[in-house]
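BUG: 3D viewer hangs when loading the predicted structure for this chain

Environment: internal workstation, default settings.
Expected: structure renders.
Actual: progress bar stalls at 90%.

Input used:
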Amino acid sequence: MSHWRFAPRSLESRSSAMLAALSLALVLLPGCARTAPAAPAEAAAPPALVQPAGATPTHAADTIGARERIDRAALIEGIRTLAHDSMEGRETGTPGAERARRYLVDRFDALGFATVDGDRTRNFTFTPRGGSEPLEGVNVLGLVPGTDYPDRYIVVTAHYDHLGVRNGEIYNGADDNASGTSAIMAIGRWLQSNPPRHSVILAALDAEEKGLQGARAFIADPPVPLSQVLMNVNLDMVSRNTADELYAAGTYHYPFLAPMVAEAAGRSRISLLMGHDRPDLPPGDDWTMSSDHGPFHQAGIPFLYFGVEDHPGYHNPTDVFEDITPEFYLEAVETILDVLRLLDQGGERILEARGQPD
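Structure tokens produced before the viewer hung:
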């Protein structure tokens, strides 16, 4: 996550927001610092709780499929590996980032993801904010072909870079954003055995922390025509929350996505909330441009961004694997997969809402 966001609300304010949001839901529905090793050779309305009032979530087989589809062991191993000290915080342009990229390429290959237009990786060059020397970033791409609309794409993104080593301390970035990166691999693994109607591009993006550069490069030099991109689903910080709250931002801008988010919320064991996407929110509360979904939005591509509110580890050396909340993480990824499947099934409705022909 590249831009500062506000701290979690107090229990009192959270309770008030939940009470106010239950009515809106009915309308919407039809740990410690690490030392670096030697380098190897509102004035606005509160966010809306979209779990239906009075509903009892069900977790048996449903129209989207049985729960517990995500490989828990692989999900946890992915975040553990990417947040390990040996990755040295994965800062773009460093040996740690290169090790993370090699790991991702190996995993994408092992999982059998197709390449995108023949490319597993796409390099790009940019000049960091406040810098004078250009840096090179590398996006890692995978593809799960669609059965009905192979030339229409849902792009699922997560940035794999983080802040690196500062003053001798490693910023491991377990939640930000080893969590989202491991999650897109786990989601892709399930889609391989349960093919989507639309093709799904899995994009592990670089240089998000340096100004959303990987996403900007994707939009500026797209591996597929942007006219064929149905929407973007972005994951950034989805593994650490003690209140069992996950946010889906984007429905303010694209209200036709709200019913699908709400339907998935009714099946989830965690609280899936809509919000953090209104322009009238206080500074830092609007996440519309806070992560890699931003450049997609600027290009007119609808997005949903999944993430948690800030926690004590945010942009600190204490964002470590040991402090994630594994049960929340697993259910968050299951819930995101639920939404993704609904988006895939509802592609025609999305195109209609966008005013594009089917």
